[in-house]
Every structure is written in C-alpha cells, then in structure tokens.
Amino acid sequence: MQGQARLMGVIGMKGSGPVSDSEGQAAARAFLAINQNMSPKAARAAIDNWQKVLQRQTAYLQKQQPMVDTYQRKIDAFNTGQNGAAAPRAGQSEGGYTFLGGDPGDS
Questions:
Q1: Cβ distance 24 to 10 under 8 Å?
Q2: Domain that holds residue 66
C-alpha cells in the first residue's frame, strides 16, 4: 500500500519536474492521509498538506526556470544556425574545400 501511495503521490506531481525520494515520500504521506472516514477538519489538514507538497515542487520549478530559459535560447540559436545555412555557391571555399557545383549526391 505504501508503494502504491508513493506512486499515486508522484503521479499527482507528474509534469512538475524531477521528484526526489523525500518529495515522493511526502506526497505518499499526504495522499495516504486523505480518506473518506476523516472529519472535515482532518480532511482540510490533509488537503493543506498535499497543497504544501505541490507548492514546494512549484517553487523548485520556478527556481529552475532561468536555467531552462538559458538552455532554450541556446537550442533556438543552434537550430536557427542549422536552418539558416545556405547552400554553397560554385567556387566557394570553406574549410579547405572548394565547392565545384552540382549535387554531391549525383555520381
């Protein structure tokens, strides 16, 4: 049951980035704490605990956002360079090679 609860807790955090073992355990505890036989006050406390787990994960993701943005800019710049490369012109030299013209795939 504990393993299934951890899995359910982690599934609830899916899409929110990496989940450490301690976060998975916290999610499992929060998930296990909620049941249909508890009082409204206890249910509210369990739900609040679950929200705290999710808020910690959200804060982690927000902290990582600048790094994600940096990587995305680098990927975009690389892709732009790849897509923006024009075919060489006949007679053009590059890297010690001179393009003579024609399609190199035609033999």
A1: yes
A2: 1-11+21-70
pLDDT tens profile 66-107: 999 999 999 888 877 766 566 677 788 878 888 887 776 776
Q: Which of 12, 15, 17 is nearest to 29 (CA)?
A: 12
Give DSSP secondary structure letters for the chain.
Answer: -HHHHHHHHHHHTTTSS---HHHHHHHHHHHHH--TTS-HHHHHHHHHHHHHHHHHHHHHHHHHHHHHHHHHHHHHHHHHHHHTPPPPPTT-EETTEE--SS-TT--
Predicted TM-score of the model (pTM) = 0.46
Specify if 58 maps to a domain: yes
